[in-house]
Amino acid sequence: MSVIRSQTQPFSIIAAVGPTRTGKSSILGRAFLRGEHENLFETGNGIQSHTGGVWIASEPVVLTPPNGGPPVRVLLIDTEGFSGVGSVTSRTYEANLFGMVYLMSSAVIFNSMFPVDASIVERMNSYGRRTLDVIAELNDYDVALKRLTPKLVWSVQSFNLHNLYNSNMSAADLLGDLKNTSRRDPHAAAATGSYSPGSTIKSTAATAVLGGQSAAAASTFVLDTLFRSTELIPVRRPHSDDEVVANLGRYSSSVLSQAYLQDVARVRDATLDGILPAHHCRNQSRASIPLFPKRCGIETYTGAELVTALANWLRYGHVIDPSETDEALNATAALIEFEAEHDAWFQRECVKLVNLLRSRMQNGFDLLGSSANASAVHAKSEQALKQVLGFAKFLPRKAMARGVELSVFWHLPGKVATYIETATKQQVTQCTEELFQVKRNVEAMRNVAARAAMPTVQAPAGVPGEAMKMVRKSDAVTFEKATPQRLAKLRAHATRIQGDDVKLQQRIGKAHEECFVVFD
Predict the structure, then answer these.
(1) ∠ CA(414), CA(416), CA(421), 5° rounding?
(2) Superfamily of segment(s) 2-321
(3) Mind listing the pLDDT tens digit for each residue in 113-168?
(4) Cα radius of gyration rounded to whole Å, the chain
(5) pTM for this one?
(6) How far apart are CA 246 and CA 47, in angstroms?
(7) Which of 318, 349, 341, 368 is nearest to 130 (CA)?
(8) Nearest Cα residue to 135 out of 221, 205, 46
(9) Residues of the chain with CATH 3.40.50.300
(10) Alpha-carbon gap, residue 379 to 365, rounded angstroms
């Protein structure tokens, strides 16, 4: 926010959104920062999303529109990819992210991969519908933005132009056909007024949001309502080598395909052509000004003003994707069930390791025999523990492999994988602590048992009633006559032991280093 807040001169915002791992970060750098800073936005080289949340350049870049107009100061924004592998985002998160980016941007680049079909168009429509929901919510709180709508540039990467040539189509023809594939929103009744409480657009401003063409907008390309123009630009593959494409951030533009660089330049020109600064309509609080005016006098935002407006949009414009209202409940229940089942499974695995440790320690003790000293016992215990800990370190991998085989993983891959990773890390730590404790306990019991082995008791040669000192040797217990000094201590502390030889023998098994007894 500090970057935006610091702006005191007019500025525009260009943001890139779209599915994960489609090259949003790369195309921003190659299109608008060619040269030294073309890799300003870090790019990933795996299958998981690399960019998280929203990233903004630290200062505006000055760019010249293709029509020769005056230079414009542009802040570039990179966003987290939608529907990423291992992502913990949701459709609601993505919808609100798209909505906020739309409200603040002068132009939006929607980036996706070739081929394109009805599914990606429907996803774009879904983002558009949720953005209409956001605007309707803001209108209810009298904080809706009234401005001239931004531009939408749809870049389709790794495009095979021969598919267009073989169909005798242009990019504009393809865009037209894709728009025609748009299906009616299953929740579109909210926009026409025939809806029940709890439906998608609960705001009374729904009709105003859709500009009196609610029924038509609900069944066509919704983004045409939100953007003043939409242009699809095919972007060819940046390089023939898969390694270069996978690690694009490591390579300068000089080694990339000229066709790719030409297409990226077209994305830049289409985005900058006619771009407007961040603004709002003058007197936008007037009811006579529609939410999507075709024309109005504009007032540019200062950075501080836009930050204040954005804070209100975030506060009042949050919406929930309707597909997650029922699905979220089912998903939550499934996730809770999985977590409980995973925890129980891990506990069983830990019990197996504990039993294995006990077994291996006992086998080691048996090899030592009953006369082994404490050092030998400790060495065998450490050896057994090391072996079992070797099995324990594979539990996270085993847990993930097991999770992938469950159907819930493929319904909630990000959440399930995240839970397995975080929970297993903690559970391995707890199980390891338990193994160490079991090792200490078993080892201590073995040493006590060795010390408490019953020796032979030799009958004393003393006089009945006379205090005798019990002396324990390696294989026997003998009795010696107590010295006068020890007798004094005996009178203060000794315990008289009476009983037959069997009871005496049991007592001797619990004897300390020095003990006195008195025989009847």
Answers:
(1) 95
(2) P-loop containing nucleotide triphosphate hydrolases (3.40.50.300)
(3) 888 888 888 888 888 998 999 999 898 888 888 999 999 999 999 999 998 899 89
(4) 38
(5) 0.57
(6) 10
(7) 318
(8) 205
(9) 2-321
(10) 10
